[in-house]
Structure formats: structure tokens, C-alpha cells
């Protein structure tokens, strides 16, 4: 199943909002997605899959979703999971630089606004990759020295990802940060270009793999001979 991670564009924002509505209670108006993509086009990323039969897929979409015709007679598909026929959005990270005028004295720093991966594509390292791409771009393009985010205290999966995999630190607990009254961990991470290299991905191509143990008849035999003596060995 080919999965691509690429920069998010304006064409992706309906799908990003759809994924956000599926996965998180913190939702945003479309203009907030636009604001991110238009202001910092280098910072937000999407994961998409193209492992689908385009014709079948379009047929299925026709059955599930309304197809409209524009005034030129072209049909427009309104399936919010597809960026275009055959390309389905399965995850995103929405990121920005801190542009709070009250903090203009702070060194450049980035912020993760939202992150989610569709349920059936979780635990494959996609969130880690999306995050690392965004953090690398913040550092490389915008010279951000650190990045911040908030996470619900009850969100174990996200907390593991940020704290254990990506090495964010908990700065403070913000009481009743969320609308439903739940507290948030305010987290930060210093951005270091070397550390953000692809070779350091936990799920990346250069991850040290456990050596596969192979049967080695010679050394097994030698071990037995040493232990038991030549006469007791039958081959
Ligand atoms: C949190 C979320 C984005 C993780 O996405 P993902 O693609 O499954 O994460 P990854 O596969 O990249 O996981 C990387 C690490 O995150 C942690 N992690 C991810 N899911 C986890 C889970 N269910 N339980 C514990 N740790 C988890 C692990 O440390 C994991 O490393 P490992 O696989 O080596 O153990 C995903 O669960 C999700 O979309 N949740 C709903 C939306 C959300 O909570 N967003 C974050 C808001 S702050």
C-alpha cells in the first residue's frame, strides 16, 4: 500500500478538516486551515494513500456522496476523504510559526496546531514522520529554535508520541485549557537540525533492526563437542 507524505496545499484543506472532525474534538473553521497554509506553506504536511482502483473508487464515491455538475458540465465529487480521485488523505499535521504580537521578543518558535492519523493507519509511524517533517521545516526554513504544543492529559497515545518518541518536555499544566474543562500539558522541544534528520526516525529506513538469528550448524556442533566430547556426538 503506497503511502506518500507531502506538503499540504490549499487543495487538501477540505480533507484535513474532515480528518480533524473524525479524530478530534478541537475543530477549526476552514479559514483557519487557509491561514496556516497561505502564511506558512512549508510547515503543514499530509499523508495520503493511492492504493485504490480509481474507477471502482469513483463509483463507490458516487454511491456514497452526491456528485454535482458545475456550470461547464464537469462533475465534481464531494467525498471529503479524497483529495482527488484515487488519492485518499489518511493523516495531517497543521503547523504554524508563533505570530503572537505579545511575544515578538521571543526567539522564532513554531507551534503544532493539530495532528491526526485515520484509525486504520495508526501505529505505522505516520504521526512521527508528519511531525518530524514539520519540525525540520520550522528549523530549516524559519530558523525556529523551539516548538510548542498542547495535549490533553488523558490522550495517552499523543503523550507517548510527543514525550517518548519525539522527546518533547512538559513545561506546565494549563488548567481547564479545553472547552470541556480538561487540563492540557503545555509541551516544548528545542529544535536541533542534526537530531531531526531522517536517519534518526524511530520508524525510519536506518532504524537498527534486531539481527535475525540464523542456524549455524558448525558452531552448534563445536559447542556440543566442547561440552560433551567427540564420542558422544551423533550427526
Ligand atoms: C496520536 C496519533 C496522532 C498517533 O498517530 P500514529 O500514526 O498512530 O503514531 P505513530 O505510529 O507515529 O506512533 C509513534 C509513537 O507514538 C506512540 N503511540 C502512538 N499510538 C499509541 C498508543 N495507542 N498507545 C501508546 N503509544 C502510542 C508510541 O510511542 C509510538 O511509537 P511505537 O510505535 O514505536 O511504540 C493518533 O493516535 C491519532 O490520530 N489520535 C487521534 C487524534 C489525536 O489525539 N491527535 C493528537 C492531538 S494532540
TrEMBL record:
Superkingdom assignment: Eukaryota
InterPro entries linked to this entry: Acyl_CoA_acyltransferase (IPR016181), Ard1-like (IPR045047), GNAT_dom (IPR000182)
Record family assignment: Belongs to the acetyltransferase family. ARD1 subfamily.
Protein's recorded name: N-terminal acetyltransferase A complex catalytic subunit ard1
One cellular-component annotation, GO: NatA complex
Domain N-acetyltransferase residue range list: 3-192
Residue runs in coiled coils: none
PROSITE patterns on file: GNAT (PS51186)
Key words, A-Z: Acyltransferase, Transferase
GO molecular function: protein N-terminal-serine acetyltransferase activity; protein-N-terminal-glutamate acetyltransferase activity
